[in-house]
Design a protein that fits this description.
With about 260 residues, this protein is an alpha/beta fold. It folds into two domains: about 10-185 and about 225-250, Rossmann fold (3-Layer(aba) Sandwich); about 185-220, no CATH class. The chain contains eight helices and seven strands, in the order βαβαβαβαβαβαααβ. It has helices spanning about 20-30, 40-50, 70-75, 100-130, 150-170, 190-200, 205-215, 225-235; strands at about 10, 35-40, 60-65, 85, 135-140, 175-185, 245-250. The chain has a seven-stranded parallel β-sheet with strand order 3-2-1-4-5-6-7, with helices on both faces. α4 links the parallel β4 and β5. It is globular. The protein starts with 8 loop residues before the first strand and ends in a 9-residue tail after the last strand. The mean pLDDT is about 90.
Length: about 260
Amino acid sequence: MELGLKGKNALVCASSKGLGKGCARALAQEGANVWLNGRDAATLEAARLEIESLAAGEVSSICCDITTKAGRDKALGATPDLDILVNNAGGPPVGDFRSWDLTDWESALNNNMLTPIELFRSVIDGMIERRFGRVINITSSSVKAPIQHLDLSNGARSGLTGFFAGASRQVASYNVTVNAILPGRFDTDRLRTSMTFAAQKSDQSIEELLEKGKEIIPAKRFGSPDEFGALCAFLCSTHASYITGQNILMDGGLVSISP
C-alpha cells in the first residue's frame, strides 16, 4: 500500500533506539524526510546510519534533549515545515510513590506531558496552513489500565491524553490528525529497566521475569519496534485522515477494557 508519505517532513523525538527508532525507520522507508533525535551523539549517529541505509527519503539527526526549551528550539529550528511530529520521551522511573517528591512529579510532567504539548503548539499552525499534519503521541497502555509502581507515568500520560482529547478535535477540519499509540510490553531497553524494580523485590532474575511476562500476554510474546513503527506510519498516511483523537492499544491483547 502506498502511504503517500514521500517528501513529507517528520521529526521523531527520542528515536535513537526503541519504539521511537521503529517509527523513524518505518517513516524513512516510506519516503519521508526524517529527523532523528536523541541525547547520546554516538547512539544517535549509529541509528541515523542504519536507517539511512534503507531509507527512501533524507535522514538527518538532531542531538539534543527534547525535554528542555533549548533542545526544543534546536530541533524545531532544524526542521522546517513539519508535516509529521512523533512525540516521545523516556518514561519516568519505576518505584514507590512514597519516595517521590514534587521535583520528581515536575520532571515527569515536563517530560511526558508538557514537552509534547509545547512541540504541538509550535508546529500546529504551520500544519493547518498547509492543510496536512500528523501528530503521534507515544504514550503507554497505562492510559487505559494504570500500572502499579508506574504512578509518575500514569499521572503524566493521563494528563497528556486529556489535553489532546480536546485539541485533536479543534484541528481535525484542517486535515490535521492527532492520535496516540499506547504500547504494552515491547522488546526494548525500557522493558528491562522497568523489570529491574520488580526483580529487586523478588528472588527472581530479570530474565526469569521477562519469560513469565510473555506468558500473561495472549500473543505469548513481546512486541517489536518494527511492528510499532508500521502502525505509526499508517496513522501518518493519507489513508488515515479520518482517524483522529484516538488512543490505540498495541499490546498483544494484554489489556482487557470493559465496554
